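Much of the work behind modern protein science is quiet bookkeeping, done one molecule at a time. Below is the pair of lines this work produces for a single protein:

***
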Amino acid sequence: MTALQCPMVETGQNSGVSQYRPAKNAFDTAELLGMQLAEAREKAGRHGCEIVVAREDDKSQPVPIEVDPTRIYVYIAQGAVSHIEGVGGGL
């Protein structure tokens, strides 16, 4: 399985679809698993990324729908990151 990295940068288009690759300062978002939300936000922020909580304690949350290669969508359980849903919102 490929690591989900953030941030991503656009490299061009293929058949009208934007293509992305990890930026030079990208990190493996799996490093956020188990961290408290505030700590995870701080770590992501050091790489220019933003955390969006998609689910908290088994309840879905409203999330932005536009593609943003600096967003990390996560699930939170009891205040800690329990799952990385994705990066970029549709990348």
Remarks:
- The helical segments are 37-46.
- The radius of gyration is 13 Å.
